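wait is this the right file?? whatever heres the structure
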């Protein structure tokens, strides 16, 4: 039975996460987003860095996701070749 405890805990976590996402879908929120909003509300005022530290988010591994309003803005190309210098890439 001990061998199954980690698996059962994992399954319980997955099921509860899925149920939370279903319930929060009506408000267009995910369980992760609701958790972040709850943390900000309970621990305010806090900086973005303090929030990232509390959530154990490493900014080096973070990336920008497209928003419902549209894709992210284009960024300048970092290529050093002269043919691409100054060109824009999404």
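ok assuming it is, sequence goes like this
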């Amino acid at each position: 039975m001990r061998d199954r405890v980690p698996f059962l805990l994992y399954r319980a976590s997955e099921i509860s996460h899925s149920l939370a996402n279903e319930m929060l879908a009506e408000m267009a929120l995910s369980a992760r987003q609701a958790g972040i909003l709850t943390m900000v509300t309970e621990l305010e005022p806090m900086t973005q860095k303090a929030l990232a530290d509390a959530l154990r988010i490493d900014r080096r591994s973070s990336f920008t996701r497209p928003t419902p309003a549209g894709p992210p803005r284009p960024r300048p190309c970092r290529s050093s070749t002269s043919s691409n210098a100054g060109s824009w890439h999404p």
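Confidence is low (pLDDT under 50) at residues 82-90. so i think its the right one actually
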